[in-house]
Amino acid sequence: MKGCNHEKKEIQKDQSPFETLYHIYYPDIYRFSFGITGSREEAEDITQDTFMKLYNQLKLPVPLLNPRAWLYRVATNNCYTLIKRKTRYREILEEEPSHPVQEPKMEKEFMRKQEGVIVRNLTRQLPHRDQVVLMLYQAGFSYTQMARIAKVKKSSVGVIISRAIDKLTYRLNQEKIEK
Question: How far is CA 147 from CA 30, 58, 69, 142, 150, in A?
Answer without folding.
Answer: 21, 24, 11, 9, 5
